[in-house]
Amino acid sequence: xxxxxxxxxxxxxxxxxYRESKIDLLLDELNRDLVGLTPVKTxxxxxxxxxxxxxxxxRAGLDAGRLSLHMSFTGNPGTGKTTVAMRMAKILHHLGYxxxxxxxxxxxDDLVGQYVGHTAPKTKEMLKKxxxxxxxxxxxxxxYRPENERDYGxxxxxxxxxxxxxxxxxxxxxLAGYRDRMDTFFQANPGFHSRVAHHLDFPDxxxxxxxxxxxxxxxxQHYTFDDHSRPAFLEYLERRVLQPHFANARSVRNALDRIxxxxxxxxxxxxxxxxxxxxxxxxxxxxxxxRVFAGSSDQTSDG
Length: 303
What we know:
Elements: H1 14-21, H2 23-33, H3 38-59, E1 71-75, H4 81-94, E2 103-106, H5 108-111, H6 119-130, E3 134-137, H7 153-166, E4 172-177, H8 179-188, H9 190-195, E5 198-202, H10 207-220, E6 224-225, H11 229-240, H12 248-270, H13 276-280, E7 281-282, H14 284-288, H15 291-294
Parallel strand pairs: 1-4, 1-5, 2-3, 3-4, 6-7
């Protein structure tokens, strides 16, 4: 972020500073990329405003201490947590809080070793990759396994806490996972709780929002629902959200992948010449061949 315009009276041109930060462009990208999530988008906008004003205050000699930028994202799978983390990394970069603005995604397996002396180098490597950007730890509660006295997760936790405190000028951690499990994790690890200032809860999508997501995905991939397949897919969603292992936008994507598979097989079996419209059209039969309509109890994947 460049120095804000300042007139002779000492006043700062906030509009110019906002434009130079490119926050509006990044927030517009977030709105385009994600359907719904109004509370999350509002909170991201508020955090961006806080960071901008804090930076301007610092440059005006009104430094009130370092901000805590570490965050917690809670919600069910497929609600946009990783996408928002990517946008947050870019916002932090454009405002000068991190050097690179890249996102490194990690899980327990990336941080915790399986034998003595294995955890420290693994955690150090992930921290090294994340420096200058954001380390996004998915299902962070798996780092802590109190039932296993020989578990090495505590070593990784201690190293993360040290980095979050000592290197927070150029490094941000986002912890993510189910809300109830993250609450338990924070209660058991007060060191994390004291360092995480921003908690964002990601709600599940409504049926209308899930259908909007499907329409966007279909359009981006150059497919089309027809007058029969679109209501069939809405009916699919109505049934699928009530079944196990539903993962919001992720399940929508998985279902569309299987629909494209069935469409391709239908066209090949059909043979002969084919129009461009037929090459892109999703048929009602492509949707209704799903196990969801057959009443199958096997819902380990989206079909």
